[in-house]
Write a structure and sequence with these properties.
By secondary structure, the chain is mostly helical. It has a domain of 133 residues: Four Helix Bundle (Hemerythrin (Met), subunit A) (Up-down Bundle), CATH 1.20.120. Helix content is 56%, strand content 6%. It is built from 6 helices and 4 strands; from the N terminus they run ββαββααααα. The strands form 2 sheets. The protein has a two-stranded antiparallel ribbon. It has a two-stranded antiparallel sheet with strand order 3-4. Helix 2 runs antiparallel to helix 3. The longest helix has 32 residues. The radius of gyration is 44 Å and the shape is rod-shaped. The relative contact order is 0.11.
């Protein structure tokens, strides 16, 4: 047996060992057809990309989830406009105390059922108009109770933007037809007008806050 130690080669003779070789091919051991052809070397270690692909797929999914969440947040921040009860309303803005008080008064009218009863429906319209007049007086700081609808609209023309004024004028006209005229409307129509009154409050409140915010940002 040859060996090396500290860079020096040496040899040592070991004890003899008896080796017995048993053939497995039997009598055909010398038959060349029974022998395998020679083969080249085989690679015992190869790269496995399975977990690399799995990791890449999971990373891509996480990136898409993060991007989707960010897009949703950006979309929610945008000042989109939607229809509410027949009027335009911009979401994601807080209703102030003036608006909350008027909305609570309208909720009380709806809960009383006055708009569902044929004999009391005109009284329900009168109550709705009073709520909206009080709201408009507080919102725009104008006298509202002792004026006709036309006079109220003229007073608001000096302080309310055109889009808000159009909403107010349209709603008051619908109520005047029932309040002062002989028009009879159904319970469904009365409740729709009440829903439009709610939307008017929300819309005018949010439009005013949006205008004030834009003024601050411009300053």
């Amino acid at each position: 047996m040859t060996f090396t130690v500290n860079g020096k080669a040496g040899q040592v003779q070991t004890n003899a060992a008896n080796i017995r070789v048993d053939g497995v091919l039997g009598d055909v051991v010398d038959d060349p057809k029974a022998l395998r052809d020679s083969h080249g070397p085989l690679s015992l270690i190869s790269r496995d990309w399975f977990w690399a692909w799995i990791g890449s797929a999971l990373g891509s999914v996480l990136v898409l989830m993060v991007v989707g969440i960010q897009l949703q947040r950006i979309k929610r921040r945008k000042k989109t406009v939607r229809l509410t009860g027949g009027f335009l309303a911009m979401p994601r803005r807080r209703i102030d105390m003036t608006g909350e008080k008027a909305l609570a008064a309208l909720a009380a009218i709806k809960a009383s059922g006055v708009l569902d009863r044929d004999d009391d429906r005109k009284q329900g319209y009168t109550e709705m108009v009073d709520v909206i007049r009080d709201y408009l007086g507080a919102r725009y700081r104008v006298a509202s109770r002792d004026l006709t609808s036309n006079e109220l609209v003229r007073s608001l023309r000096a302080v309310a933007p055109d889009d808000e004024l159009a909403l107010i004028e349209r709603w008051l006209e619908r109520c005047d037809i029932v309040k002062y005229g002989a028009a009879r409307v159904s319970a469904a129509t009365g409740n729709t007008v009440l829903d439009d009154a709610r939307a008017l409050i929300v819309t005018t409140t949010q439009m005013r806050e949006a205008a004030q915010q834009q003024t601050k940002e411009a300053a």
